[in-house]
Amino acid sequence: MLFTRSTYIGVYIPPAGKQLFYAAVDGKLKPMALGVGALNDILAFLGGQQQALAAINGPWQPNQSFMADEAYRQKLDPAPKPGRWEDLRVGEYLLGQRGYPVYQTPALQNKAKAWMRTGFKLHQRLEALGYRQFSSRGDHALVEAAPEISFYKWLGKIPLLATSLEGRIQRQLVLYDLGMDIPDPMRFFEEVTRYRILQGELPQEGLYPLGEIQALANAYMAWAASRSPEEISLVGDEQEGQITLPSKSLKK
Questions:
Q1: 152 contacts: CB under 8 Å, gap ≥ 6
Q2: What gap in Å lies between CA 68 and CA 59, rounded to an integer?
Q3: How do the domains of the chain map onto residue ranges?
């Protein structure tokens, strides 16, 4: 599917399973595509865009051993204790110190988890198609996103369990309140009746599955990086890979 104007795409690589989720929105945050597919399906979709900024969860390369360099470590705030926090990226360390749930990217690719290796491969294949890290100029760019940490930041608190119904409603409501043109998940409660609860038939119309919600969150971060840069912050060392996160919460 080819879009001729700028497209903001979120790709979500789940911790388990071979299928990847993707979402594409336009400049007004209206979804243009939403789906699931194998790695080659995602590459075909992204490769067909004339102008696109894509946000992908997960690192684009192994850590570059900055955290194993004692001189580098002493420049960080707070500086890590000797012998700890060595085999991960700088951004992961900084977020972990602030209480966020982080993955730890090893220096050796063969020690990375399967979903990380999928991310490495996806980034490499996209670079071959002309995509570059966002700091570079060009019509095709990439950023790294972390949807669960984004929801932490937007909510200003720990979100509800992602795999639960209420967790999905909460996350979709966050995206709706951010201005994304998606169904209001609060309509779910208008459809809940005594009979439906007794029958165990809760309405799912207008509620996205978790993978699509995470992909939409990444698509929003791609949009914000390009259209609303005051809403984002970059965490980590640019040479190793920075994580793009919201800079403020929705709490008043």
A1: 100, 101, 158, 159
A2: 18
A3: 7-62+109-155+210-246
Task: Kindly report the CATH number that applies to the domain delimited by 7-62+109-155+210-246.
Answer: 3.30.420
Give the N- to C-terminal CA distance of the chain in Å, as an integer: 39
Closest listed residue to residue 226, CA positions, set 146, 134, 155:
134
Q: Would the pLDDT of 1 be above 60?
A: no
pLDDT tens track for 142-185: 999 999 999 999 999 999 999 999 999 999 999 999 999 999 98
Distance in angstroms (rounded) separating the CA atoms of residues 173 and 35: 20
DSSP 151: H
Burial of 98 (0-12, 13-18, 19+ CB in 10 A): exposed
Output the pTM of the full model: 0.91
34 token code pair: 């939403």
Bridge partners of residue 141, in order along the sequence? 53, 132
Confidence band, pLDDT 50/70/90 cuts, at residue 2: very low
Pairwise CA distance, residues 147 & 162, whole Å = 11
